[in-house]
C-alpha cells in the first residue's frame, strides 16, 4: 500500500513513466486487484461472532481470497497456471476476430502481410519480430486499434491480457506494460529472480513451467526486442502479442491438456502450407 500510494502521487505530480522501476510499475498496475481481495476479506472478518470463520475459509480457498503475497511456492505455480489457462481459452476467439477484420477491412500488401502472420500461426509456427514490426502501423487506427475493434473482439483482447475491460484503461495498461518492458531491459532480464521471471512470462502469454531459465530469458528478450520499437500509438499490437508470439508454444499447448485449442483458418493458408512443404522437401533433398 505504501509503495502504491507513493507511485500514484508521483504519477499525479507529472513524473514520466520511463523514470519508474519495473517493480514500481508492476505494483501500480497490480495493486488495485490485490486490494479488492484484501478489503473483501477484512470486511467479512469484521462481522461479529462469525468473522473469524471467513479467515479460515480464506485459508481453505487461498486462490480466491488471498493475494500472491500469501501464497507458498507450490501455490504460486498452481494458481499462476490456473489463471493462465483461463487466458489461453480466449486465444482462439481472438484469432477468429482478427482473421475476420483482416478479410473485411484490409487489402493489397497489408492484407497479404497479415494473412501470412495468421497462416504461420495456423501452421504451428509464430511470426518473427520483423514481420510484426512491418504491420505495426495497422494497429494505430481502424480496424485494429483499441478504440476501433468491435466490442466482442475488444472483450477477448482484454481477457487475453487479463487487463481492464474499459477501453481507456486497457490502453493505459498496455502503455504501462510497454514501460515495464523498458525498465526490465534497463535493469537486466537475467537479473530477475525465478519467481519474477515466471511471472513476467505468464503476463506476456507464455507458460514458463516446463522450460529452462535460458528459454525464458530468450522469450523475454524476443518480446522486449519488439516492444522497444512500439509506442503509445501502436500499443494495440503489444496487446495482441501474447497470441502472436506464444500461441503454439509447447508449454501452452500442454497446459490445455488435449482440450480443443488448435486453431485452423477457415480461409487461406494453402499458399503458405505449400511454401513450407516445398522448403521441407528442399532441405531433405539437400541432405540426400
Task: Describe the structure in brief.
This protein has helices at residues 2-12, 22-45, 51-60, 62-65, 73-88, 91-105, 108-122, 129-134, 151-161, 167-187, 194-203, 213-227, 235-246, 250-255, 270-287. By secondary structure, it is an all-alpha fold.
Helical proportion, percent range: 55-70%
What is the overall shape? globular
Radius of gyration: 21 Å
Strand element count: 0
Number of helices: 15
End-to-end distance? 65 Å
Q: Structural class of the helix and strand makeup?
A: mainly alpha
Architecture overview:
With 288 residues, the chain is mostly helical. It contains 15 helices and no strands. Helix 10 crosses helix 12 (213-227). It starts with a helix and ends with a helix. The relative contact order is 0.11. Residues 273-277 and 279-288 have low confidence and may be disordered.
How is the topology of this model organized?
Blueprint: H1 2-12, H2 22-45, H3 51-60, H4 62-65, H5 73-88, H6 91-105, H7 108-122, H8 129-134, H9 151-161, H10 167-187, H11 194-203, H12 213-227, H13 235-246, H14 250-255, H15 270-287
List the main descriptive attributes of the protein structure presented here.
288 residues, mainly alpha, 15 helices
Amino acid at each position: 500500500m505504501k509503495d502504491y500510494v507513493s507511485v500514484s502521487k508521483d504519477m499525479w505530480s507529472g513524473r514520466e513513466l520511463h523514470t519508474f522501476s519495473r517493480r514500481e510499475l508492476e505494483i501500480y498496475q497490480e495493486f488495485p486487484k490485490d486490494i479488492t481481495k484484501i478489503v473483501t476479506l477484512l470486511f467479512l472478518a469484521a462481522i461479529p461472532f462469525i468473522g473469524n470463520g471467513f479467515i479460515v475459509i480464506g485459508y481453505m480457498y487461498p486462490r480466491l481470497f488471498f493475494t500472491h503475497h500469501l501464497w507458498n511456492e507450490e501455490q504460486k505455480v498452481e494458481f499462476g497456471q490456473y489463471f493462465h489457462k483461463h487466458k489461453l481459452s480466449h486465444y482462439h476467439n481472438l484469432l477468429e476476430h482478427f482473421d475476420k477484420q483482416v478479410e473485411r477491412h484490409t487489402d493489397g500488401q497489408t492484407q497479404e502481410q497479415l494473412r501470412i502472420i495468421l497462416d504461420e500461426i495456423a501452421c504451428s509456427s509464430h511470426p518473427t519480430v520483423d514481420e510484426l514490426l512491418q504491420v505495426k502501423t495497422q494497429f494505430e487506427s481502424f480496424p485494429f486499434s483499441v478504440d476501433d475493434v468491435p466490442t466482442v473482439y475488444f472483450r477477448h483482447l482484454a481477457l487475453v491480457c487479463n487487463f481492464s475491460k474499459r477501453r481507456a484503461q486497457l490502453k493505459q495498461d498496455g502503455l504501462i506494460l510497454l514501460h515495464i518492458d523498458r525498465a526490465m531491459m534497463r535493469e537486466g532480464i537475467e537479473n530477475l529472480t525465478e519467481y519474477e521471471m515466471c511471472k513476467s512470462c505468464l503476463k506476456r502469454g507464455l507458460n514458463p513451467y516446463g522450460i529452462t531459465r535460458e528459454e525464458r530469458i530468450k522469450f523475454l528478450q524476443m518480446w522486449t526486442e519488439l516492444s522497444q520499437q512500439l509506442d503509445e500509438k501502436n500499443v494495440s499490437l503489444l496487446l495482441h502479442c501474447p497470441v502472436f508470439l506464444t500461441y503454439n508454444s509447447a508449454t501452452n499447448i500442454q497446459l490445455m491438456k488435449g482440450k480443443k485449442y488448435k486453431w485452423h483458418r477457415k480461409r487461406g493458408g494453402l499458399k503458405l502450407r505449400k511454401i513450407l512443404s516445398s522448403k521441407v522437401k528442399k532441405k531433405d533433398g539437400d541432405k540426400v
